Amino acid sequence: MKHKYIFFLLFIFFITQIKAGNVNLVSSNLPIVIITTDVNPSTGTQYTIVDEPKVPATMKIIYHPDGSRNYVSDQNNSSYLNYNGKIGIEIRGTTSQWLEKKPYGLTTYKSDGVTNNNVSILGMPKENDWVLNSLAFDGSLIRDYLSYDLYRDMGNYSPREQYCEVIVNGDYKGLYIFMEKLKVDENRINVTKMTTSDIIYPAVSGGYVTKSDKTTGNDPVAWTMYSDNGWGVDFIHDYPKPENITREQKNYIYNVFQTLMNRANAQNSSIENGFPDVIDIPTFIDFMIMSELASNVDSYQYSTYYHKDRRGKLRAGPIWDYNLTYGLDVFANRSLTTVWQFDNDDNEGPKYWKSLFNNATFKCYLSKRWSELITSEQALNKTIIYSKIDNIVSLITEAAAREQTRWGTVGNLSSQISSIKYWLSDRMSWMDARLSNYTACANVSVPQLVISKINYHPTTSVENYEDSLEFIEITNNSNETANLTGIYFRELGVTYRFPNNSTLLPNQKICIASDSLIFKSFYGIDAFGQYDRNLSNKSEHLMLVDAFGNIIDDVNYADSSPWPTEADGNGYYLQLINPDSDNSIASNWMASNSSLTKNNDIKFTDLIVLYPIPTKGVINIISQTDIQSYEVVDLMGRVVKNKKLDNNKKINITDLPANVYFVKLHTSDNKCIVKRIMKN
């Protein structure tokens, strides 16, 4: 490694000797980001941006929403300011911050300059943590942007991004990518947020974000795993943060990786106790394909992220840091068209990547996925990639000329782009020849399971409790018993895996619920299982797959037309009209409030839930029936409280001693329903 380090130092020295020139930016076809650091009261001068801590500043983003040119002179015109407010900003990165053109990390603040401010920037979902990617070492200016775009087109989360031109304290800094920072968030890495009390299963099982990377700042090494050539690979806790993660959480996520290593190295591909039971195979395959397509010299060892949701499988990704790719390597000559990076003597990724590739079943699915992605109109089709490159270059050509004037690092952009295209052509041909055989997994049989009911927003009448009434119904739409071993929902948001050796009889329906006890109490039938997290009240992608990721059923519902809108908080649920129809089409669904029955003798409107039981004093009521009044009766049969039920549907027994009672609920249709309660 010593020769690489010396080479890198020489490269850095060369780069920093390139003469920089001044640029007076007047206008751009790209958004213009203007950052002005605050005046330091102790010195009377503006803060200098450093690598920790963040310094206070103001940021303005000039962006004409109609796509017309953006002018620096518009920085005081609120109509053209996409953002105008306080930020904290610091230099970020490791080797990239050695260059004169610095990468930045920033947080958007409210007007007090302290409180985080979740905002939408340049059309990206609201958040407060952002990155200004400086395009370090990449004269083509497209490697990161192209890679994130391709990975997103493959169907994975990838940080959203927008090219922009940046001015800091009046100094034109050049072309950057304004992008999302990788973090746990519903619209970014969508896993469960944990607390220090989540130390017992299932809570301890997620969510996590872990990375193998260089250590920067004060982040300690969580553990070390080893590559096939004996190099140590350092793993770091990204979420929960090292300072917050508990001993139990550390042990849990370490054991997940250790189990992966043991099973992959043993070539155990059993869906019950092999690596498919540990990892989400499609994400590992897509991560490997993207890493190898780009021949990313950092993949597997640095900037390699993993995430795991509560009770979910370990997932690879998102991808990050793709500047040393497509033939570019500032350390040596490693980004070649004729190597596998996971099997490269110069790559120090953990051994399980190579072990997975060498497994016949995994490689079959890898080859199958590669062959799908390169076909016509798919994300990695060469013609489509070239077209995407041309569109990106067209977008940045004007700014690239200014980048060359300012930093002298672009040179001939057209030549750079041509080199990438030629390199890609050779690389894809080499991969084609090695990922061509997938006969064994070409036509996999999956059970005919159909998502037939979705109760995603049961009712708005039960404050803070409606999520507990959610359910998903699954129908075995065949005349054969379905083996459910290994089957799971693979899209993040709702997590559920069917137990090993569980089955579903021909034409049988089952429900999995967000709360099995409440489901039984309210609907009168048993739930087959309980999923983690909750269905979105807006839209969610439900993908039911087998242990290797083969799609069984795939529905992406929404709370807006053409989907039946009555199912959005109005006491209805989505019901598939015909189980033989395509349930990905909204018109094949209807809104229903029919009974959920096991023996056709349970009326939906007769079901009432009281909670919490036991109680400290206040009991809430969930009911589709109009309840007029109630009586509370003690164990001696004495009525100790008798009242009308008000609109908030609560029974207050704080004045009664701790004991067991019965509540008689009197309905508008002259029925009396009795429920047993307990006060602590």
- Using DSSP, what is the number of strands? 32
Number of helices: 9
Radius of gyration: 29 Å
Which structural class is indicated by helix and strand composition?
alpha+beta
Q: Strand order, biggest sheet?
A: 2-3-5-6-7-9-8
Structure commentary:
With 680 residues, this protein is α+β, with helices and mostly antiparallel strands. The chain has nine helices and 32 strands. The strands form eight sheets. A seven-stranded mixed β-barrel has the order 2-3-5-6-7-9-8. A six-stranded mixed beta sheet has the order 21-20-16-15-24-25, with no helix packed on it. Mean pLDDT is 92; it is low at 1-18 and 599-606.
Pick out its properties.
single chain; 680 residues; alpha+beta; seven-stranded mixed β-barrel; six-stranded mixed β-sheet; 26% strand; globular; disordered N terminus
Short description:
This protein is of the alpha+beta class and 680 residues long. Helices cover 20% and strands 26% of the residues.
